Every structure is written in C-alpha cells, then in structure tokens.
Description:
51% of the residues lie in helices and 3% in strands. A hairpin with a 5-residue loop joins β1 (271-275) and β2. The protein has a two-stranded antiparallel sheet with strand order 1-2. It is an all-alpha fold. The chain has one domain (24-263). Mean pLDDT is 86; it is low at 12-17 and 275-279. It is globular, with a radius of gyration of 20 Å. The protein has helices at 2-20, 28-41, 48-66, 76-83, 87-90, 99-113, 122-131, 141-153, 174-177, 195-211, 218-236, 254-260, and strands at residues 271-275, 281-283.
Amino acid sequence: MLSFLNRSKKDAAASAVAAARPKLELSGPILQQSLQQSIAGCEPLGGIERYIEALNLKSTLFKEALLDGKHETMTAETFGGLCVFMSTVRRRVAPYLEGEAFAVMKAAIGDLLTGREDTSTADARIAEFCNAFPVDKKHRWVRDLAAEILHNVDPERYPLMTRWMWDVKANTGFLREVWFDDQIDHMTLKVPDTYLTFITLREELSQYLTENGIFRDVLTYIDLLCAQIYADYICAQGGSYLRTDFSSPQDPMEYTRRLLGLDGIKAKTNKTRLKSIDGTAFVLDDANLLEQN
C-alpha cells in the first residue's frame, strides 16, 4: 500500500512538472533553412567546426575563471577578459571593473553560482543577481551577464537564457522568430522567460538536431543555430536592434558572431571591444577565439 502511495505521489509530481512546461510551437522549415545557412556561412572562417570549437573554448575560459571558488580571487582584468565575449555586457560593464563596484560584482557572482547544481533555484538566483544592481533600463545587460555566466560555466545544466533568446516583456527574441504561426507578427507570446521555458526549448532543439544527423556538441550547435536565426532577424530589421552594438554586416555571419561574443577581439590585433570608463580599449593576449584572416 505504501509503495502504491509513493508511486502515486511521484506520478502526480511528474504530471505537475509536465503541466507546467510551456507548449512551444517551433517552425521546422525555419530551423532547417537556418541550419543550412549556418553551415554555409561558417565556411569562410574555417567551417562550422571552428565556430563550435570557439564556443567550447569560451566556456572553458569561464570555467577556469569562476569555478572552484576562483571568483573570490578573480581580478578585474580576468573578469574584463570574460566580458569581451559578451556583446551586450561589454559596452556597459566598465563602471563595475573598479573598486567597491567590482567587489559587489564578485559577491553577486558568488551568490549566483552557489547552489548551481539545483536548477530549481535558477530563476530565483538570477533575480537576486539582477537585484544586486540598479533595476533600470541602463542595467538590463545584467540579466544577460547572469545568463552567460551560468551557461558557460555549466552548459549541460543551463541553456542559454539571454534576452536575445527570449524577452517576454519586450516580446522579442529567438523564440518569436522561430515560432510557427502565420500571425506571429501580430501576436504577443505569453511564454515566460523562465528556466523551464529555456530548458524545454533546448530539449526540442536537441531532438531536432539529432534527427538531422548532428550527434556531437549538440548543445553548442544549438547556440549557433539560435544565434543564426536571431541574426537573420537583425539583418531584416536593418540592424536596428541594439544599433549601438551592431553595425552594418560585412559578411553573413557577422551578427551571429556578435550575438555569441565571438567578435570580441578585433582582427589582426589584441585590442578588444571592451572599453574602460575613460574609453581606452581593453587589451587581451592569447584569447582570439575566432580571428578573421
């Protein structure tokens, strides 16, 4: 009898989780077209495998700098090196690379990473991280910083949850661009930008990629595919999205690289797109993930 009751409780809990999961209507044709575009667009810089390697290296840099308590002794220079690879963060983070503000940043990162093994607290920890900074339009990048940190230090547990992936308040992001509905341009998606939504989205994209013959580095391929689809949207809008971050594209993958932070170091130089408060370009040695020849 007790066994039956325990099984019933587990079944009820599983049903509750399933009921809470959002139903996502994704467009297969859009995914297929963008996957082919990604493969073709990556060729001039060494092929799609080089992009995958660059994203994996980016993750390694975050792990080496932040895990095992290293965030506690992290220098502003090290943190600045990470910010180089976060396009929506690097233009606004400069005030937090000095003095007491940097101490606040490190403490917030520590709280964000504490208990990361328990993904049920993901939304609460992200909210707490954001509340450690002013809650205004000038600090919307803080959400992206939290999402990038979690994703890069623990990509298996945490899918990419940046605003360009999905921002329910703005009703913009990758999710909207891949939504299967002829009336999407006139719709407001009522899908929360929570951990459960993003993990559900990743599961569906993983299934799509494996069904299309991709079995290695699937999680990294997902990031590249999502960035390609949202980059197409940016191009269609004439670069109006985050105009201060995005200039006119010189090649099909420029916006994709920008979204993924792979454009952080300027080609042929070790100067980066991260600038200090006085406007001096941050210099980074030996971390050019994807230099254009």
